[in-house]
Amino acid sequence: MYPRDYLYSREHEWLRIEDDLCVLGITEFAQQELGEVVFVELPEIGQVFDTNDELGTIESVKAVAEVFTPVAGEVVEINDAVVDDPELLNEDPHGDGWLIKIRFSSADDLKSMMKAEEYEEFVQSGEA
Amino acid sequence: MSEGQSLKRTPLYDRHREAGAKIVDFAGWEMPVQYAGVIEEHRAVRTAAGLFDVSHMGEVRVRGAGAQAFLQRLTPNDVGKLVPGRAHYSGLLTDRATYVDDILIYRLAADDFLVVVNASNAGRDFEWIAAHAAGGEGGEVAGDVEVIDESDRYALLALQGPQALETLAPLVSRDVSGLKYYGFAEGAVAGVPALISRTGYTGEDGFELYLPPEDAPEVWRRLVEAGAVPAGLGARDTLRLEAAMALYGHEIDDTTTPFEAGLNWVVKLDKGEFLGRDALAAQKASGIPRKLVGFEVQGRGIARQGHPVVSEGGIVGAVTSGTWSPTFEKALGLAYVPPEMAAPGTPLAIEVRGKALPAVVVETPFYKRSR
User: Fold this and answer.
1) Interval B84-96: pLDDT, tens
2) In chain B, which residues have their Cβ closer than 8 Å to the Cβ of A57?
């Protein structure tokens, strides 16, 4: 369910590290909680965020969720496909439903994140 | 709700679990918010037939020789015109003409009525009705009136959609095709005695079935077997909003009057004295300070309950309900605005997370079924 080579946050974002970039998305658990996504709002390329800043919002029929970035850095790419076709987030949250790529400024931010097994335990514990 | 206080469950709870429903706390009840998905369930109701468990609704029996006179004085619609076998939409109003709740009144017999109320207000409504019948608060002289909380005596299923009739008909002991909108009759559904009512909260044709709780799971099973698609509270909300039907706690509450909510047709000022009548007569003379309107969002985003309507930097109104509409595939909603901003075509700005989202006032209901 949760890719082993990703890192996970308690706010249900995932990161996949590609050299000094990371790809960011929301988890399967998050998309299930939200239900059918109808709008995705993402930042502009070039915007700079601090750790835990809100970088966008995801709206489903029933709810709105803020997306936070677990890492500080600059947005270098956004996924236009998911903006045009928000269902991608429901269909493939860990793949085609990715949100942004960010050039992170410090690898220290990654230390507090969970590995897949820890995240699975976290969502199964009912604390999530 | 404090911890340790247990949530209530309807007789259909196990059916919902089996069907994979996502269960949420709604007004103290563990209710299914969705099964397959809100959009899919919504479309099933618009194109075929959906089945809702609304057993959390409350029922209050009002009967006795003085029952009609009592309900005439307690509610704004004209109970005198309600014949046995018919129901009507009405309200419980304070002396300021604001809502305690919106209700349905079924006339079972000349001196026998069933009042159906929202789950979130059921306890308060029963006490309100009972206190007025006792001649306490408000001082009505009720005469011979008995008020009984019968919420535990009924499970309630709503079968809604253009195929509701053909789904129900083979399972019913009598012909229900002749039932008029807001008419009802007794009959057996899948062998279970039921009050069968041609009412609903979706903007579609359909039926509401008042059933003995212990037999409701079997009726549910038979209706699903006949093709009805289980639908949750999520779809119920998007459907009623497209039909621009008011929901207590959103469009109406203890600060809003029927005139402000555009529910003028439930108010019969000329029927004689009733609770809230003076305030309504005064508001009719002075004009309403705000009006409920429908809007469509023109930008990207969804305006939801509580988002302010702004004009020239100031707050002039508020959204009462907003959603993404599965039928129209755009965001729409209802909002209170000053009367001068209520005409269809009027541009609105709605503040959503610090940004002004453009919207425009449109006619309601957004959705009207073809008959």
Assistant:
1) 999 999 999 999 9
2) 353
